[in-house]
Amino acid sequence: METTPETFQSLVRMLRDSSTPEMAEALDEGEFNTQHLLPDIQTPTLVVHRRGDLLARFEWGQYMARRLGNAEFLPLDGDAHFPWADDADSVLVPTIEFLTGSKEPRPEPKQSGAAIAPGGTATQTGVTVILFADIVESTSLTEEMGDAAFRDKARELDEALRTIIREADGTPVEGKLLGDGVLAVFSSAKNAIEGAMRFAEAAETVGLGLHVGIHAGDVIREGDNVYGGAVNIAARISGESEAGEVLVSQTVRELARTSAAVSFEDGGERELKGGGEPVRVYEVRWREEGDE
Questions:
Q1: What is the topology classification, in CATH, of domain 5-104?
Q2: HSE-CB of 59 using CA atoms within 13 angstroms
Q3: pLDDT confidence band for 150 (50 / 70 / 90)
């Protein structure tokens, strides 16, 4: 749905009536920057953002979902800043499903290459290998390079990573595309690892660095999206990696240690952000002659 002039004017009035000139100036100057607090918020959160949002860029909603400790991202069509404007059902239905855990059948979504349940409903799948990559220090790079220059580089890298993912027989997850990162699923740990190892070269070519993490576990697929505890762990393992480093969980190591042309260096147990039990991670390196 597109925003009508009447709706837009009502939103403008609401914004004007709910803030002072001083508050608006402080917001415009970035004085209320709370990005560093997002990873500490562990409450399950549904982030809803319309692709054509006239006031806040779509990538900002993606960024928030990535940084929050336990979030799902729901992209919607339209340009309304307040996602319920002119099309409340598109927000109300998934919000109720999110809060209650009850999912009603929806119209079949557009295919993206990932497995999708009949009718677009959520479905539990078997073990899936999840690869998560995130641009290093994206916030500071945006401030240093300027928003337009950074987004151009990020877009170029995103296209390169998607090409690598598909060449490795993986599927980029559209519903989880974030402004500074990418999520993909694979049926093979070997393919996921070998694709991830190519990421560093692609990032270096563009002039950016990447955190990369891989985990495997049960996921839930719905439409163009994939979510579940295993996805969160993959993202948090990615956050533990240094620029250009690929970290995998012990589960992935066991799945791939006899088939991938790589070696695994024990990185010890890590206390991942968001709590839970420590996870043992391994740094992946191309196998050299004499490696077991």
A1: Rossmann fold (3.40.50)
A2: 15
A3: confident
**163: number of CA atoms within 13 Å, CB side?**
9
pTM reported for the whole predicted model: 0.60
CA atoms of 220 and 123, how far apart (whole Å): 6
> What tokens appear for 264 in the block?
């695994």
Overall fold of domain 123-286? Alpha-Beta Plaits (3.30.70)
Per-residue pLDDT at 38: 76
**What is the reported pLDDT for 152?**
83
| Confidence tier at 13 by pLDDT (50, 70, 90) | confident
Residue 142, amino acid: T
* All residues at 6 or more sequence positions from 84 whose CB lies less than 8 Å from its CB, including other chains: 91, 92
The helix/strand/coil state of 130 is strand
Strands (E), 142-259: 171-172, 181-186, 210-222, 225-227, 246-249
φ, ψ for residue 138, nearest 5 deg: -65, -35
Q: Where are the domains of the chain?
A: 5-104, 123-286
